[in-house]
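FIELD: query
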Amino acid sequence: MQRAQDVIIGNTDYNPKRMAGCIRRMLERKVDGVAIMTSEADPALVAELTRRKIPTVLLDTGKNGSVSANITIDYAQGIQEAVQHLVSLNHRRIGFISGPLICTRPASVSRPSLQR
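FIELD: result
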């Protein structure tokens, strides 16, 4: 038996008010689960999802819980592998474009980690 699925996507532009609105709309639509793929999440919003027992996946923020999981990324390792790949292709002048400076990011993503 096949079951139709809908996916609801929201873009927050790292704006807490937009994130709150996205989560509110998802709650109104009675979603079965939420993936928050931003570098920051309002703990009160995450607590509301937990209170409602809605399975939630977070990116580099929050803790694992009974209905939530936190995906952590080894940014330094990823950057190192990307640079090694480009160097293996004989690229020598490699640029780096980051996301918004206002968002928090792990300390491992810093100029020193990029200069290795």
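FIELD: remark
The beta strands are 34-36, 56-59, 68-71.
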